[in-house]
Model the fold of this input.
Amino acid sequence: MISKAELRPGAGVRYLFRGVMVGDGHCPAGMALRAAQDEAGVPPGVWKGRGLAALGLVAGDVVSERQAELLLGEGRHPDADRIERELLAQGESPARARRTTVLGRPIEHNRSPKTEKAKERTPWLAMDLVFRAPSTAHIAWALTDDETRLVLESCQDVARDRTLAWLEESVAQIRWGSGGTHRRP
Done:
């Protein structure tokens, strides 16, 4: 059995699980993420984005703690446990079953001849986005009626969804091929 500490090797992943995913609160070691979110009054994360279908995920479904551990902590498919079990049942080797669940491939480092330092850069593989309304919106939400609260919540949802759509169209790239050298927006 692998401990949760082993599944969350990096400080960045610990930061996400123990802080960001609970509304910048605190998730004590050993407490389930969902319990910490409930205690902090933070809704669970849900899957969003146009690439979900390729992974067999559904927009709006709740992200389980294990799915987040696999994706953010290990760079593996969010349903890697199920996929590995199915492949092992079909006779695949454990190593092959595990490799099948790894998302992406290593990306070649920058080979710019201009400086030695450029050769040491690590590619940027992901980003963490937290969508939070400004403090004034929180105050307005707390001091107003239910109808206005719904409008404020709707504005937050629209802003988040439009931002994600823009990022998917204008920033994100899919890489493939040896060393991830081929790119497509």
